[in-house]
Design a protein that fits this description.
mainly beta, 123 residues, 49% strand, four-stranded antiparallel β-sheet
């Protein structure tokens, strides 16, 4: 059974940093694109960053220059280093994996995504 488990969220002041982790189990994800989504209160989840199996990365404009996505294929883990955090970064963060052109966590059923990890940026 494939599982994605996020960790590392918390409460941080504006300008602070957090590092999120997503541990994947049940398969070898080293060749798959993995991404981080976030869902702000009252909004649909948005893709904020992804990293391909070959290491290529892409970021949403809202986080470019502040967030860095990376992966450790030996550990089947993807990370999101978040610096210079802003109150508008407050959200529940989820990881996801793209397999055969389809996201493991369906983008048609956000309610099934589980708890994710809460990031709150507030003074």
């Amino acid at each position: 059974q494939v599982q994605l488990v996020e960790s590392g969220g918390g409460l941080v002041q504006p300008g602070g940093s957090l590092r999120l982790s997503c541990a994947a189990s049940g398969s070898d994800f080293s060749r798959y694109l993995m991404g981080w989504y976030r869902q702000a209160p009252g909004k649909q989840p948005d893709l904020v960053a992804y990293i391909a199996g070959d290491g290529r990365t892409n970021y949403a404009d809202s986080v470019k220059g502040r967030f860095t996505i990376s992966r450790d294929n030996a550990l089947n883990t993807v990370y999101l280093q978040m610096n210079s955090l802003k109150p508008e970064d407050t959200a529940v963060y989820y990881c996801n994996v793209l397999i055969g052109g389809t996201w493991l966590r369906s983008t048609n059923d956000f309610g099934s995504w589980g708890q994710g990890t809460q990031v709150t940026v507030s003074s």
